[in-house]
Amino acid sequence: MTLSNDKAILSIDGLELHFSQGGGVFRGKAAKVRAVDGVSFELYAGETLGLVGESGCGKSSLAKAILNLHRPTAGAVIYSNTDIAGLSDRAMRQYRSALQMIFQDPFESLNSRHTVEVILEEPLLIHKVGDKNSRLQRVAELLAMVGLPPSAASKYPHEFSGGQRQRIGIARAIALEPEILICDEAVSALDVSVQAQILNLLLDIQEKLKLSIIFISHDLAVVRHMSDRIAVMYLGQIVEIADAESIYSSPRHPYTQGLLASIPRLGEASPIEAQISGDLPSPMAPPSGCRFHTRCQHRQARCEHEAPSLQAGDDGPHLTACHFWPEIAAKQANS
Ligand SMILES: Nc1ncnc2c1ncn2[C@@H]1O[C@H](COP(=O)(O)OP(=O)(O)OP(=O)(O)O)[C@@H](O)[C@H]1O
Questions:
Q1: Which range has the worst mean pLDDT, 33-47, 60-74, 149-163, 255-269?
Q2: Are 75 and 85 a contacting pair, CB within 8 Å?
Q3: Residue ranges of the ABC transporter domain (predicted)?
Q4: Mean pLDDT across the chain, nearest whole number?
Q5: In terms of residue numbers, what domain contains 261?
Q6: At 226, phi and psi to the nearest 5?
């Protein structure tokens, strides 16, 4: 898909989500967890933007801040010419149908005391869609769309396998015909063979509904399969964003290079620790300057005190937040 001329359906600008140490969104002056710390990007209509990074780098927090499930500490989320960041639940209601999320564990996110019919009818009821008959017809349609038989309607979530439950989660997320879907580790809990079925279902549904998707996963092979563009996140910030092909064929940020080198090849795992030294620093006290400098084998004095911003090279919209990526790339090309 060509994206350079595409229209942004969502613009994120300087988004921050800070938590207080004991949980809950940070509001005061005590120590804070900078889970999301100045994130800006655009999501184009119809694209899938992959979001990758180590566990704890802030991917889920970013998703929740975008959807206002945790009210952001600062920044803007522009959808349909409106800044929806920080809207009250009531004001947010009119946007909820357009922006939906699929979670990792559909068992936890589906009410176990309700039948599938009740679960799928609920969003339609909340948004006052149609009468009882048309809602039940819509439930039947949704089940067919996600490849479940009509008999699924009268069953409870525990009667289904993990993959089937994720199909129910997807049916619920698309019930109101959203424009934007955020999938947070949507297949991570599933067996590999089932993962492929759910990923293909998502691709089918994306095409039918013309969805724009933010696809979060720690599995870089899965992200590559799904994404048009990829954003790489480190300690609450985006360090590189480009089309998927460029990210995988010529990663520029040393962190992205380490992440990609940790993809298992021919069954041999190469954990992230083997590629990037040291642990992820605490988001309560992120390093000064470039946040990655404490783990970067290419660091120079400037990296310790000057934070790099996301900058394009001469070759189009491949953005990298590293002072020295051209020098690093040149060195790598000559080695
Ligand atoms: N409700 C909360 N209260 C306090 N800190 C939180 C809260 N939610 C997340 N955090 C912290 O924010 C940071 C980012 O967490 P987040 O879950 O967003 O990362 P992630 O990249 O999605 O990781 P994972 O892949 O493990 O889910 C972590 O340090 C985490 O401990």
A1: 255-269
A2: yes
A3: 12-260
A4: 90
A5: 1-98+228-280+311-335
A6: -95, -25
